[in-house]
Design a protein that fits this description.
The structure is a homodimer. Chain A is of the alpha+beta class. Chain A is built from five helices and ten strands. Chain A has two domains: about 90 residues, 2-Layer Sandwich (Alpha-Beta Plaits); about 140 residues, 2-Layer Sandwich (Alpha-Beta Plaits). In chain A, strands 1, 2, 3, 4, 5, 6, 7, 8, 9 and 10 form a ten-stranded mixed β-sheet that branches. Chains A and B meet through strand 4 of A and strand 4 of B.
Chain lengths: ~250, ~250
């Protein structure tokens, strides 16, 4: 048995998220079917984490084991020929035996895109949250810095997931207005050793309250300290969220 | 009767082009239906020109006459509430009586986007031609300069349209590699006093032959001089084409 590591990009718009669910089209199932068509094996794929319905990826990582004799380069080309056009394999490499995309991940980076102009962007509507009124990105960035470091992030976790611990470490968090033509866009990037369920989207929903001026820049730190989901802002919608990179 | 001028953006992916056709969903019909819902009038809308199925716009202009008492600002908001999310009114203004979006246009600018990297961009697949192999943008730009000026562009016209003349003036034509993160993208921008049917897409298909090295940079000028559609390259696919701006 050989172990492979895939780096994937996908437009999550037309999928019910990563994880296989009966009666729904999921990214995992689509990838497993493509692998079955290529190798003739029933292959189970594991991702660095599950992305929800409508969430996108520029650098999701998935691992699987196979008896195939195909080279990683051939496997990559065959997968890109087999997969629908809203999924792409950016790289395929052979990994050490025992490599596991979930368990071995040490760092992940997400990006969230908010469009804060009055008129919708018809081309980016699947890839951003259209917030409509202008946000103060400097206040949001300042507020976000209070979330850096190692904390109990249970205020930013949607219940229902069963995790041992809600302690995570945010290494980097930054809010910036988009470059060039995209002056009506904010990006919120967060890098951490792991994320609780809906953590990025709840942090974004909380920072937006600061950006629109209804809360002060100290408020997100108070939300964090409360360890209570009720203290935080709304959960931002899925289509603005991109899994950018996973490090091992 | 008042005359209005709308500036529109649309994602043409899900439409059979601008012009009303029985049994198909078109941009014109969608806009006219929205106007009927708002004003109660049967309004006929005229665009600066028809865009084909799959072609997009960042600055299409349309005009219509109406007895409505609504202000342009209110009309704009009502239209954006009424239209599907792949169409947006960027501005609505009242125009002088007799203003006609087709007849009064003096200059139009189109952009065409080519992705010349090996792996498809899952987010931009509806908005670019995925050409796969790397193109020489400097050779394409140099070749394009031979098309500047006033010429008979019948080599770049798909037959079937009945026009009085195939003489047009290209004021500006430029090929450039994309900015920032988009290094795998070329944009071809063309500004002219008018365009023949499929003219931009045929120019792009011709310049790509230069970019891939199968034709010299003098070839597009020779194609132009031939006044023969058979001399030109293929017609590039619609999804890379954007109507950027119309001047009056």
């Amino acid at each position: 048995m050989r172990t492979f590591k895939l780096t994937l990009a996908y437009d999550g718009s037309n999928y019910s998220g990563w994880q296989i669910q009966p009666g729904r089209i999921t990214l995992q199932e689509t990838l497993e079917r493509a692998l079955a068509n290529i190798t003739g094996e029933a292959i189970r794929v594991t991702a660095s984490g599950r992305t929800d319905a409508g969430v996108h990826a520029l650098g999701q990582v998935a691992s699987f084991r196979s008896e195939t004799h195909l080279s990683p380069e051939v496997l990559e080309k065959a997968l890109n020929a087999e997969l629908p056009h809203d999924m792409a394999v950016l790289s395929a490499v052979e990994a050490r035996a025992g490599f596991h995309a979930t368990g071995d991940a040490v760092k992940k980076r997400y990006r969230y895109v908010v469009h804060d102009g009055p008129i919708r962007d018809v081309f980016e509507r699947r890839y951003q949250w259209h917030y409509r009124s202008r946000l103060d990105e400097a206040a949001m960035h300042r507020a976000a810095q209070g979330l850096r470091g190692t904390h109990d992030f249970s205020s930013f976790e949607t219940h229902g997931s069963k995790r041992d611990s809600s302690i995570r470490t945010i290494f980097d968090i930054a809010v910036a207005r988009g470059r060039g033509e995209k002056i009506d866009c904010l990006t919120i990037e967060i890098e951490a050793d792991g994320f609780l369920y809906n953590m990025v989207r709840t942090i974004v929903g909380t920072l937006v309250e600061v950006g629109r001026g209804t809360q002060s820049h100290e408020w997100p730190s108070q939300v964090l300290a409360a360890c209570d989901r009720q203290a935080a802002g709304q959960t931002a919608p899925p289509q603005g969220l991109f899994l950018m990179r996973v490090e091992y």
